[in-house]
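Running this now, will post back.
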Amino acid sequence: MNLNSFFPWIAQVIFFVGLLPQIRLNYKLKSTKGLSDFLFIGYFLGYSFYTFYAYCLNLPLAHKIMVPLGLMAALVLVFQRFYYSDNKNGDRKLKLFFVLVTMFFLGLLFLAINNRELIGHISGWIMMLNWAIYQIPQIIKNYKNKAVKGLSFGLVSIIGLGNFTEFIVMLVLGMPIQSCLNNFNGILTYIIYLFQFIKFK
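Update: finished.
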């Protein structure tokens, strides 16, 4: 197997596996209270736009297979958010948001058929912006609560490793700038989370 096609698999598998500890922790606690709603929104939006980015710009096969799997894991997280909620009535607006966004992506799918490159680049930039800011509310919540309860250290560590690995891969393969900036931001976010786990654990 060509190394240029092998290394992207490593990073993408790491990203997918990184979501599993959080899913497991939510199941174990039967709760998602320690997590910001923006974390669920961010994962859903991020992986949805990432899927368009991967297919429209014809990224390596690893992205085309593992990113949709990551999207499925993100959907499990969203399901857990509502399933374990104590405030079913209060979640109506959030549920409506996810329904409307899902309809938007279905519409975007039809647009992408005849505008693959344009939709791919736009999705890539939106994905990068999403990955850059979606963790901020969780970081703020951890700081305000002086706690990281409910947030999986496995998720944080594995995703951090994935960002570092893919950042190197992106530089070597000369991938689009969106990917490199996205991974660099992920590394910085991991460092902040690591500090919070040390301080608040």
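The two ends are 42 Å apart (CA to CA). More later if anyone needs it.
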